[in-house]
Structure formats: C-alpha cells, structure tokens
C-alpha cells in the first residue's frame, strides 16, 4: 500500500525505529572493524561487499546508508510474503510502525460505468500506440554505443557530456528539456558543481606545483560533518593514501554517487538571463582537500591553530599598503589582527606581542621571550613562515644592513618571489628606490623559478652601466625570456633549441634526436614531437608485423625501438627505466595512462639542467643578471623563543640549475647557494 509523505515522516520520527536503526549500524560497524574497515567508509565499498556485511540486518545494502533509506526501502518494497517475513524478522519496530500507518488508510473502491466503454476503448488504443512508439524509440537508442548516442545528440542539437552514462544520454535524447547537459567533460562538470554550485565555501580548482589537479575549499566542521554535507549533495567522500594533492592536509576523493543535474544562473551579452544546465555523471571523481586547521589536525592527535598562509601579509590585510616607519606598520598590523580574530584573544594577543618584540629587536634576531606563546611547534613553524614576513618587514626598518626608510607589500598575495619591497630614499630626495625582499623560513633556501628573476628585473632599473656585464647577461636573458613565454614542456624543448643555436655543450642531445625523428632542432616543439611519438607508438618494429608483445621483437613498437635501441644509448642520463614509466610510454599504459611522448620529453627535461650547468658562460651570465637585481633574502628560523634573521644578496650567490620532475610539469628552475 502507498503511504503518504506525512505517514513516512511519522515513521521517521518514531524513537523506537531510530533506536533500531542505530543498533543495526553499531553491529554493521563491528563487522566492518573486524575486517579493517569502518561504517564511515561504507559508501565506498563494492556492491558485493555491502551485501555481505549487511546480510541479516537490512532488506538491501542501500538501507544502511541512513535512516531515511532504511524506512523508504521497506515502504517501497513489493510486500511479497517472503519480504514481509524478512522485515518482521530483522526490523520488527519498523514493520510495527509501517503496519500501523497502513491501517489508517481508507478502503476505496472505484467503479466505472458501462456507458463509457467506447471511450475506454479509444483511450486504450491511444495509450497502446504511444507505448509502442516509446518502446521502439527506447530499443533503438539502447542498441547504440555511447559514441553513437553522442553523435545523435549532436545531430539533434542537444548538448550532452561525453562523460555522461549511457542511461543519462538516452534519457536526455528522449526528453531533451529535462536536463541540458553541458559539453564540458565529466570531471570539469563536477568541478563546476563544486566551485559554482553554491555549497562548498571558497572552493577553487587548483594544481599545487607537482600535485595533481584537485578542488580546495574551506568548509568548517569535522570529517563526519563534511561527509554528511557531501552526501546530501549526491557525493561520497573517501580518503586517499599518500599526498596526491597536499602534504599538509588530508587527501580525499569526491565521487558522484548518482547522476547529478544542476544549473547555474547565466546572462547573455544582450542581458538576457537564463539558467545553464549541467549533469555530473554518476561515478565522476575529483581530488579534494579541506584547508582548515581542524582538517589539518585530523589523525595527528593535535589541533592546529593556523593554516598555511593564514597569517601572510596579504591574508591579514596588508597587501598593497605602504608604511614609512616600523611603528606605523606594527600599529596597523595589530588592528588587522584584532579584526581578523575579534573573539579569539588566545590567537590575537600573542601575535600582537610578537609585533612589539619586533619593534624592540636589535642585531640579527627577534626575541620572543615576552610573548605569551602557547602554540606547538607546528603552529610556530607557520608563524615563522607567514607572520614572519610582517616581523621581518618591521625589523628591516630598524636594523643593519638594511635600515629601510619604509616598506611596501605587494598588492597580489601570490607575487612570485617578492614578500615585500624595502624603500630607500633616492638620491636628491625625490621618490624611493625599491628593493625586492624574499622571506624564507628555515635554514636553507629553495628553488626559484627563472620567471621570478624576470619579474624582479622588470621592477628594477635596467642595466648596470657596465657594458661587459650587460653583454654577458644577454646570453642568459634569451633563455629566460623563452621560458617565461612558454609552457613547461615547450620550455624544456626550448632550452635544447637555444643551446643548439649557440652551439653549446649538450647540443648533441637534440641533434641526435633530430636525426632519428627527421624533425630539425629549430622546428622541434611540443606538437611536432607528440605527433611523431604517437605515430610511432602505433607502428610495429621494423621487422615485426604487429604492435605489442608476441610480435617476434624485443620491442613493442617502433617508438620503443628507436628510443631504447638508438637514442637512449647516446645519452648519459635520461633513459626511461622505471617499469611503470616504460609501460606508460611503450606498452599499454600504466593505471590507465598512456603517454608515448614521455619517451622523448622526460630525457629532454632531465638533461636541461645538466647541459646548462656545464655551460660556464650560461652560469656566469646568470650571475651577471642576478647582480643587476639588488634582491635581499631573509631566512627565518624559530629556535628557543628566538627568530634568527640572516640577510643575503643575490650578488653573493652561486647558482645551480635544477631538474624538475616530468609529472610535476614545472618550468626550468635553479637553486641559490649563498657563500657569505
């Protein structure tokens, strides 16, 4: 019998039913824990696993998802004798309430008069015809592949996602107005759902250096609350091992538990408002991290007070502001701290005390002895890295060797390399010279992108008035400009093109590749090399008749034959050796990834730093460029309630080009070692 929504709500609100469901979940969690699992991860189990662990407890595995599913699955069941018997056996409280609500239903009998038989027949014939047409249409669509369905939708002018399930595609074709799927790929649609759908605060798509593309958000609450929130939106949240997306926060994957239709308000250039409709296909996944202090502390038996960059000048509110004295900066920073933490004196008070310590500091350190610091080492590290930029700016206006007349914080919170500018009164008293300052927390420096130096140079006066130095600097500047204007892969190839043109050491690497591919070094780019790699990946070896294992050759394809058999033996470094990489480049992929171009790009990347480091003229040129940049780097390190400060100048640095990882996709970079 059909129950009204009111009746269902009555059952859901029954305390005995809720208690019965809770006891079942306890038993389910016990069964899972005995096998190294827990109920929190039940959504991520396979259908077979759910069936095994929930057997004898629930009518069907989905009934264990939540209380509503528990009730609805019983109410909507067939009520066959065997089903009723099972429900009475394992869910007596639930069945008692269902039967109580059934008894409240009225006894209704519908009688049809004999005088309308003719109309009945006409309606029956019409319905039969409509049903036959629909069944035929359904049958026609059901025999099509996903590719055919996509083409059909395109033919009819119905935008549909390539990543949508076959069922979803058929539904849209039969009822185009029900949901209008975007032409975005499935993962992109899930990203749109998360970032623009309106329920994940501060959500954004990010790729953190070498980390994989993922979604970041700032959502308050613990893991249980987060899981519940996403579940209400049709998404399951599961943990990911390792540090795929972030080293500092727990890594998760969000997966669509069902097809999720949604829409976002839009407006045409003409001002016409409309709703753009999307569909996230079931099974679509995307990486996710939650950037909160509570999330950061999960599984570490500690609560974090601050998140990374929470205390940086830009996030405090100092971005784009200029100060003519350390006192003015300290006063403004204190006001902004109070504004940021109005009801959290345990955070605000010690931070303001650190500002006072910075004002009183002399020499090469800032004492923290007066500050009432109650933070653990993890929070102190964040204070050093982020709030340390503010403290260093105050210190720089009172102490040698800097003694700036003022400081200016960049307007952009992510300005590469530059944390603040030191202002020194220009000769003649008009205006200020700006010295870029980079703050590094810890005892050592790190990699700095070539692009960072380009940006810093743009803010400085051009030239040194030394023709020899300026001429030498131009040797490297060509490389720098190319890297700045190129993607990572194009930059790797570009290094070899430039070294070939300069007839520099290491040019033989690209020249030997040119002989193999038939592509001139000066014509090598990402597209030309990728096309060549893909073409030869699908060709059999020279004396074989087919591609892949069992072709009578020790190579799977012509690409492998030319790379491993011809090019790699000429290289001292860079040959592909790892089993997973070899599968990705030459065989049938690794974990679903096929990347033939890696066979070329990876050796080229690994050799970029090597050929640059052996080119003494290039390193000398880099030093010449650095000397044009009066850039100061401070290194901050909290030790025994003291922050030590060291000032270095790029002119005193030795440079070494660094190789980045292929998977990271980063541009060419170098590391600075300070000798003084």
Structure explained in plain terms:
Strand 14 and strand 15 form a beta hairpin. The protein has 25 helices and 17 strands. The longest helix is centred in the first third of the chain and has 26 residues. Helix 18 packs across helix 25. The protein is α+β, with helices and mostly antiparallel strands and 676 residues long. The chain folds into four domains: 99 residues, no CATH class; 180 residues, no CATH class; 163 residues, no CATH class; 162 residues, no CATH class.
Which SSEs are present, and which pair or pack?
Elements: H1 5-12, H2 15-33, H3 47-54, H4 67-75, H5 81-90, H6 92-103, H7 117-142, H8 146-156, H9 166-174, H10 186-196, E1 204-206, E2 214-217, H11 223-232, E3 235-239, E4 252-256, E5 260-267, E6 273-280, E7 285-290, H12 293-296, H13 313-316, E8 322-323, H14 326-340, H15 345-360, E9 365-367, H16 377-396, E10 406-408, E11 420-425, E12 432-441, E13 447-449, H17 450-458, H18 467-485, H19 488-501, H20 507-517, H21 526-537, H22 558-567, H23 579-586, H24 598-613, H25 616-628, E14 632-638, E15 642-649, E16 653-658, E17 669-674
Parallel strand pairs: 2-7, 12-14
Antiparallel strand pairs: 1-2, 3-4, 4-7, 5-6, 8-10, 9-15, 10-11, 11-12, 13-17, 14-15, 16-17
Helix pairs in contact: 5-6, 7-9, 8-9, 14-15, 14-16, 15-16, 18-19, 18-25, 19-20, 19-24
């Amino acid at each position: 019998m059909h129950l009204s929504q009111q009746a269902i709500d009555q059952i859901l609100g029954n305390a005995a039913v809720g208690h019965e469901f809770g006891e079942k979940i306890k038993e389910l969690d016990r069964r899972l824990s005995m096998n190294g699992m827990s109920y929190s991860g039940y959504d991520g189990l396979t259908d077979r696993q759910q069936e095994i662990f929930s057997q004898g407890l629930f009518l069907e595995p989905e009934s264990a998802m939540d209380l509503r599913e528990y009730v609805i699955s019983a109410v909507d069941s067939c009520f066959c004798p065997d089903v009723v018997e099972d429900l009475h056996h394992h869910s007596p409280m639930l069945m008692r309430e269902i039967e109580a609500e059934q008894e409240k239903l009225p006894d209704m009998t519908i009688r049809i008069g004999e005088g309308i038989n003719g109309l009945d027949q006409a309606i029956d014939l019409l319905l039969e015809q409509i049903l036959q047409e629909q069944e035929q249409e359904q049958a026609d669509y059901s025999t099509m592949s996903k590719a055919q369905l996509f083409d059909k939708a395109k033919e009819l002018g119905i935008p549909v996602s390539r990543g949508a399930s076959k069922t979803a595609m058929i539904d849209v074709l039969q009822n185009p107005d029900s949901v209008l799927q975007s032409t975005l790929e499935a993962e992109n649609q899930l990203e749109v759902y998360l970032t623009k759908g309106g329920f994940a605060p501060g959500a954004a798509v990010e790729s953190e250096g070498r980390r994989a593309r993922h979604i970041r958000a700032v959502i308050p609450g613990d893991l249980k609350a987060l899981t519940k929130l996403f579940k209400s939106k049709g998404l399951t949240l599961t943990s990911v091992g390792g540090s795929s997306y972030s080293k500092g926060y727990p890594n998760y994957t969000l997966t669509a538990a069902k097809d999720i239709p949604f829409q976002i308000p839009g407006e045409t250039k003409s001002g016409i408002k409309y709703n753009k409709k999307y569909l996230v296909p079931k099974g679509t996944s995307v990486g996710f991290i939650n950037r909160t202090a509570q999330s950061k502390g999960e599984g570490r038996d500690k609560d974090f007070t601050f998140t990374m960059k929470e205390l940086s000048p830009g996030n405090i509110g100092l971005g784009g502001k200029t100060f003519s004295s350390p006192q003015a900066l300290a006063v403004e920073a204190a006001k902004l701290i109070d504004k940021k933490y109005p009801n959290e004196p345990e955070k605000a008070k010690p931070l303001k005390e650190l500002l006072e310590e910075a004002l009183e500091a002399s020499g090469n350190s800032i004492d923290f002895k007066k500050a009432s610091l109650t933070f653990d080492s993890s929070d102190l590290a964040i204070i050093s890295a982020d709030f340390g930029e503010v403290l260093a700016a105050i210190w720089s206006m009172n102490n040698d060797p800097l003694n700036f007349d003022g400081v200016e914080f960049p307007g952009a919170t992510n300005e590469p390399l530059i944390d603040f500018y030191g202002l020194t009164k220009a000769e003649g008293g008009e205006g200020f010279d700006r010295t870029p300052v980079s703050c590094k927390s810890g005892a050592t420096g790190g990699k700095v992108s070539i692009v960072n130096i380009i940006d810093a140079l743009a803010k400085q006066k051009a030239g040194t008035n030394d023709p020899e130095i300026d001429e030498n600097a131009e040797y490297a500047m060509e490389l720098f400009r190319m890297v700045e204007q190129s993607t990572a892969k194009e930059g790797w190839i570009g290094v070899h093109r430039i070294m070939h043109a300069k007839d520099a050491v290491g040019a033989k690497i690209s020249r030997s590749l040119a002989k193999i591919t038939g592509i001139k070094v000066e014509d090598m780019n990402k597209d030309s090399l990728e096309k060549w790699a893909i073409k030869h990946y699908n060709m059999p070896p020279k004396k074989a008749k087919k591609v892949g294992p069992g072709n009578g050759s020790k190579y799977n394809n012509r690409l492998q034959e030319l790379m491993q058999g011809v090019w790699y033996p000429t290289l001292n470094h860079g040959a592909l050796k790892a089993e997973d990489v070899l599968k990705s480049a030459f065989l049938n992929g690794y974990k679903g990834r096929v990347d033939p171009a890696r066979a070329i790009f990876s050796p080229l990347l690994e050799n970029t730093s090597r050929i640059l480091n052996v080119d003494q003229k290039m390193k000398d040129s880099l030093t010449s460029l650095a000397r044009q940049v009066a850039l100061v780097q401070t290194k901050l390190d909290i030790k025994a309630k003291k922050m030590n400060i060291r000032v270095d100048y790029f002119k005193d640095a030795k440079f070494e080009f660094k190789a980045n990882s292929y998977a990271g996709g980063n541009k060419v970079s170098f590391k600075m070692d300070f000798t003084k």
